[in-house]
Amino acid sequence: MSEATPATIERLSRRTGIAPDYIRDRLGPPAPGHGPGPAPALLADEAMIERVLVQETSFFRHAAQWTLLGSLLRDGSTFPARPLQVWSAGCATGEEVWSLAYLLQSLGSGASRILGSDISPTAIRIAARGTYTRLEAMGSFRDLPEFARNAFPRRSGESWSAPASLRSMVRFEVHNLLDPVPAALEGHPADLVFCRNLLIYFTEAATSQALARLAGAMRKGAILVLGAAESMRPTALFEPLEAAGATVWRRTAAAAGTGA
Ligand SMILES: C[S@@+](CC[C@H](N)C(=O)[O-])C[C@H]1O[C@@H](n2cnc3c(N)ncnc32)[C@H](O)[C@@H]1O
């Protein structure tokens, strides 16, 4: 049985930013005989949101972006000061965050701080546990680049648990990207923000609101990484930086509104 009435879909879309058509597809048609009626309880909303979310992710997903990021980190002009303040918004089950921690530590930036956030409490629990098992196919370790191959499980059934040195760099938090920036970033503008494969599900209005939120959390010159298949028009807030077959976005000096 689904409670996906038009009013419910509209409410969930306003809450998450996800487009109504996509929510409708994920939840299926309303149960027969379900009229407009009173709004379902908040708890039901949480459960429905979990059903709508797509938590597809893997370590070092989209190799070209990691190659570009590695060269920006090495050349020093994009990230002149260390340690770095990093935010992975919509980090799902955390593979992206642990990949960032591994890359930064291997480049000598092990004192950096990385915040991983997601709207899903279930995903954040898995992320914070930091233990992943290699599956036969399509698992967390399917995209490992050459430089990381030896550090992560190579055989199906083997597990990897984040070591203490990476755990000390990372914290996770349940956070809705449409809400004000997490308190952990207040007064600590981010040098690098990942927000990959999330805005593709958003309405246009929610995308603008989310980009304004992200911009508000970043210092001038900071880098925003979107999903490899996601693009945007250059705006007053972000300009493209292209190299090595990937595009990232540099925060301009323009002031960000709340977008709310
Ligand atoms: C497809 S996953 C992307 C994971 C990772 N960034 C990657 O590219 O591999 C999208 C994530 O966005 C999260 N998400 C969706 N709407 C959100 C919102 N309004 N605020 C925060 N996270 C959201 C989902 O829970 C999901 O974990």
TrEMBL record:
Keywords: Methyltransferase, S-adenosyl-L-methionine, Transferase
Classification via Pfam families: CheR
GO biological process entries: methylation
Entries under InterPro entries matching the protein: Bact_Chemotaxis_MeTrfase (IPR050903), CheR_C (IPR022642), CheR_MeTrfase (IPR000780), SAM-dependent_MTases_sf (IPR029063)
Domain of life, source organism: Bacteria
Sequence segments annotated as region (Disordered): 21-40
Compositionally biased intervals (Pro residues): 29-39
Ranges of residues in domain CheR-type methyltransferase: 46-254
UniProt cross-references to Gene3D superfamilies, sorted A to Z: Vaccinia Virus protein VP39
Protein name, per record: CheR-type methyltransferase domain-containing protein
Species, as recorded: Pannonibacter tanglangensis
